[in-house]
Each structure stands twice: as structure tokens, then as C-alpha cells.
Amino acid sequence: MTILADKFGYTSMDDCKRDVKRKILGQIEFENKFTGQTEMRDFETSNMKTKEMGEFMNKVSIWASSEYGITLPNPDDLRFEV
Predict the structure, then answer these.
(1) Helix 50-68 crosses helix 13-25 at what angle (to 10 degrees)?
(2) Residue 53 forms beta bridges with which residues?
(3) Element (DSSP H or E) covering residue 56
């Protein structure tokens, strides 16, 4: 996300993550138990399973590349053999 934050001028990594998640995943509806109203909230990547997180990161990479020409590093490419 640092590459995207730098590219778009974010000063807050949390804001960048929020906006990227909204762009890729959208938001989900939930009922506010206090008001009874339907509201929107962001998906929480911390609740994703490994496969779901991989799919999300792949979508982010494709979006960044196709829309903005930004190549994000593949985590598998960053591993070192010992």
C-alpha cells in the first residue's frame, strides 16, 4: 500500500487502505442496532482467510496496473531462498 499511498499523495496509510478497500471490495450493509437504520461499513481485511486476502491483493494489483500503470511487488517475489 505504501506505493499507492505515495502515488496518490496520502499522508495517512489508514486513509489509503480504507479507500483502496472501498474501491476493490465496496462496502457492506448492516443494521445499526441503536437506530434500526441500515448503514454501510467497510470490509475488514483482518477477518479474511488467507485465500481471500490473496484474491484481494491480486485484484488490487490488477487495478493499480490497468488503471494507473503501477506495478506492485508480488510477495512471492520478495522471498529469499536460504
Answers:
(1) 90
(2) none
(3) helix 50-68
Residue with cell 479474511: 48
Q: Could you tell me which residues come within 8 angstroms of residue 30 by beta carbon, excluding any fewer than 6 positions away?
A: 38, 39, 40, 41
Reported as a pLDDT band with limits 50, 70 and 90, residue 78 is low
As a dihedral over the C-alpha atoms of residue 18, residue 22, residue 28, residue 29, rounded to 10 degrees, the angle is: 80
Express each pLDDT in 12-55 by its tens digit: 999 999 999 999 999 999 999 999 999 999 999 999 999 999 99
Average pLDDT of 49-78? 90
The secondary structure of the chain in percent helix, strand, coil, rounded to multiples of 5, reads 55, 10, 30
